[in-house]
Amino acid sequence: MHHTLWLMTNDPAKPAQAVPVTIKVTPRYRMLPSRQVVIADQKGNMTYHAYLFYPPSHPLEVTSAESAGLPGKVTFEPWSGQMADPEMNEGPLPRKGYKFTLTLQGIPDGSQFGTNIAFGTDDPSFPQILYPVFVQKGIIAQPPTVFMGEVGTAPRRMAFLVTRRGKPFNIVGVTTDSKHLAASVQSTDIPGEYKVSVDFDGKAIAGDYRATVIVKTDDPAQREIDVQVTGTIRASDGPAHDSQTVHQ
């Protein structure tokens, strides 16, 4: 860490003086891997491993561990081995600490949840540590609903992601149930992730507006992903749109 300490004085010849300060901070502990989304299997079960290590000169003892959020089981055991720490720009180095195993069951389809591995330590400055884990079952849309807000007669473009990282799939088509919406899909740089763009033509009649974008995939377990588009139309010069069918 690089900072500057400024000394302010009443000396007219040198009223301010900068003093460079360099500080090297060694983390009390590190958790790996870094934040990520873990994909559950077809039955909704998941087993995930996380690792804690500490400076060799300052050991830390884990006293308890549990799943805080989703119902599950956490076990832990002493661990040592070679591991890189990309966030600290460190390659594989000898590490020593603990290995945690989180087991979850019955995760619903088409969902993403956040939970934590919560564990206690003997360090009074860190009596409890929360390590976040994001769990996903199946293909999901982010966000699950697109809110246009209040719009007028001007066209508007919106977008959402359809994703299942770690287990790629293909989008084979995208349609809408409203003549005022057009949708298109583009792949992103991340395998298993697509961007769906939704264009509103601004010609719907005034009032509450609701439509559905239907994303079709090649996954036999999730042939369609439905994303609702909602908003309030202030005014429109175009003809009334057809009544919308909301896909749940």
Summarize the amount of helix as a percent range.
Answer: under 10%
CATH class of the largest domain: Mainly Beta
Class per helix and strand makeup: mainly beta
CATH architecture of the largest domain: Sandwich
Radius of gyration: 26 Å
Query: What kind of sheet is the major sheet?
Result: 4 strands, antiparallel
CATH topology of the largest domain: Immunoglobulin-like
Poorly predicted residue ranges:
236-248
Strand order of the largest sheet: 3-5-8-7
The global form is flat
Q: Please state roughly what percent of the residues sit in beta strands, choosing from under 5%, 5-15%, 15-25%, 25-35%, 35-45% or over 45%.
A: over 45%
| Distance from first to last alpha carbon | 51 Å
Number of strands: 18
Instruction: Compute the average pLDDT.
Output: 89
- Count the domains: 2
Count of alpha/pi helices: 0
Question: SSE order, as H and E?
Answer: EEEEEEEEEEEEEEEEEE
Structural commentary:
- The chain is mostly beta strands and 248 residues long.
- It folds into two domains: 30-137, Immunoglobulin-like (Sandwich); 140-233, Immunoglobulins (Immunoglobulin-like, Sandwich), CATH 2.60.40.10.
- 0% of the residues lie in helices and 58% in strands.
- A four-stranded antiparallel beta sheet has the order 3-5-8-7, with no helix packed on it. The chain has a four-stranded mixed beta sheet with strand order 4-10-9-6, with no helix packed on it.
- The radius of gyration is 26 Å and the shape is flat.
- Residues 236-248 have low confidence and may be disordered.
